[in-house]
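Chapter review. Work through the record for GTPase Obg before attempting the end-of-chapter questions.
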Amino acid sequence: MATFVDRVVLHVTAGKGGHGVASVRREKFKPLGGPDGGNGGHGGDVVVAVDPQETTLLDYHHTPHRRAENGRPGGGDERNGGDGADLVLPVPEGTVVKDARGRVVADLVGPDARIVLARGGRGGLGNKALASPRRKAPGFALLGEPGESLDVVLELKSLADVALVGFPSAGKSSLVSVLSAAKPKIADYPFTTLVPNLGVVTAGSERFTVADVPGLIPGASEGKGLGLEFLRHVERCSVLVHVVDCATLEPGRDPLTDLDVIEAELAAYVPDDTLGGRPLSERTRVVVLNKADVPEARELAEMVRPMLEERGLEVHVVSAVAHQGLKELTFALARHVATARAEVEAAAAAAPPPRVVLRPQAVDDSGFRVRCETTSDGEVFRVVGERPTRWVRQTDFSNDEAVGYLADRLNRLGVEEALLAAGAVAGSTVLVGPEDDAVVFDWEPTLSSGAELLGSPRGTDVRLEESGRKSRAEKREEFHARKDAQTAARDELAAERRSGHWSSARDE
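Structure tokens for GTPase Obg:
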């Protein structure tokens, strides 16, 4: 069973936005008090944040599917739905986030480093928010938007100043155990170290970290053995220490050959360009001839030491078991680490500050475009844009009024004019949204005139129309007009009777 995982594929989904509500206020003596539907809550985000207590990605190896909380729907009486809680995923410091194509999204270095991987969907508006002086009684509400969903790769790359490299069983774990307080597993068989081990070393006023990682074999840069798992953890190290076993009895191996093999693997490995990209072969290198407590190994180390120094390498003969040469090695590593840190600080100070570029939206930018495409089913017109896509997702197509509201919005945005300019006619197939999740319409142009003949405008209710209260003068004028009309009608009837146009039974 795995106890340490440094690379996982994570499937994250942000929360959905809550739906808005279409509701009408009902009170005593006021059965139609107007719309009072509340808005839906926003969905929760998926956030990746550095946690100092985390050391591995093991939890995400077992449960790679993570989902944030959905927003809650709104309610009547203008009650808005609650927002969904954000899902915070803790990761160790040094975690690199990549997208499905392998591009680096974030390098989480620092105790407060965090990034929002997927944003939650926005909540839909209720009919209270959709009401306006022209639309006093909306009988619909907007749906909540779905949250973002994506796959990312999390890679843990250790934050160490010094990395110990070498063949398996070269004594790297033993060296870390005597230089620091770390207690890695030590045994007399190859690949004892299966996970990186970090130790903190103090030399005078300098403190630095040393990484003991799995051993290398020929072909490690191509993935043989534990090579890739190893090399990933030395990309951030500024000093590489070659730990050479001078007491090995394997045929074909000697200190010079071992060094050449490891150097070839370091040169073949290509580090990530977005994380610095400096080849491993260009890092500061120190050679440690280990196991000098064995007499034959001591003689071999003293023999090859001049040859290595002729190559320009700094050489230390040590024995992790007998604690020989460790003090000199510790202070030498501290010196190299201090130099590397000073170079990094100088480069950061000399680098120009980032240039802020503002790209305002163009005045004539409508926010969408219409693209004519030829498919197996014939010619179609695709409307691509953030706003049209969002509006379509928020529309409840089972509500005719909501569909009409969408048509009005698209018309005001200029979609119909753009479709006509692109050559669309009545009955043309129109797709709104991305290629993998588009909504298909059989387009019918909207009548631009004559709508007043079709009855009340969309979103109105004559029962909610407010009529002003008549003044006393208006009531008096209306009363006198009614009396005058009655008097005129009686006079007209009397004149007709006298002229003999008609008679009543009493006259006979």
